[in-house]
Design a protein that fits this description.
Layout (H helix, E strand, L loop, with lengths): L1 H14 L8 H27 L13 H4 L11 H16 L4 E2 L5 E3 L10 H10 L9 H12 L9
Antiparallel strand pairs: 1-2
Helix pairs in contact: 1-6, 4-6
Amino acid sequence: MSNLSGFVKRLRDIMRNDAGINGDAQRIEQIAWMLFLKVYDAKEQDWVFDDENYVSIIPEQCRWSNWAHDDKSGSAMTGDQLLDFVNNTLFLVLKGKDVKDAGGKTLIEGIRVTPETPIKKAIVQSTFSDANNYMKDGVLLRQLINVIDDLRLDDYEE
């Protein structure tokens, strides 16, 4: 239990420095949507392993492992670039809205859920329908993401 409380304390300490986060309710929501994407990414890796025909409902560029993971090469998004991606691409797509360029051309289609969509896929859109990114500092957001990304979900002990 001390590992969990230490993990949460690290996240809270980072978020306390961000002007956009005001109170525990916003901290919890912020942590929840990021943890959801991290866990969902790990589950999708299992589903791909079990079913070679598995197709993610999340577009490639919006999957946790493709935008959030920092391989320490210096290429991970941070600052204003990260905030812009999260607010104007990630959240739009996961809420089911298309990302368009200035001319109105669709760059990335928002996820589509129909009555036939399996629950393990439909849950993404329902999770993000009311989710918000409260953080205003992209550098602090990167720090928060890195702490969450360090979780090893394939490790039973963790």
